[in-house]
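Chapter review: from sequence to fold.
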Amino acid sequence: MLLKDTVNYYAKYNFLFKKYLSDLDELDPDKILEKQNDLFRSLLKKAKRSKFYQLHYSNYGVDLNRIKTIEDIKELPTIDKQLIKNNVDQLWVGGAIKFKGYTSGTSGSPLLVYRSLKSIIKEQAYVW
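The token string follows.
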């Protein structure tokens, strides 16, 4: 294995990865919906800090404070890939350190997304 591959592997599958994985394994099936709602509300809280979402949702008259559960997702307007591509720089609400990532491009062309180290680790835990 090359050094780069080794570093990449341990960057993804480290103690933080194992923590998130164990958190998922310990979820009681009855608690899954509660966890989904908590994560959904957390995501909306971050969206409130984004210039893009503030403008987009206000254009559609959406009050994010009224969205409480994942069932309320139907109240949110659809966002397509082109809208994201045109506004990618207004979406980031994380800290100063961000990593560029790209979707696979299976729908035509890859989409640039900004990611935090924490989001990369979480994604790897969910995929695992």
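Two observations follow directly from the output. The mean pLDDT is 82. The longest strand covers residues 99-102.
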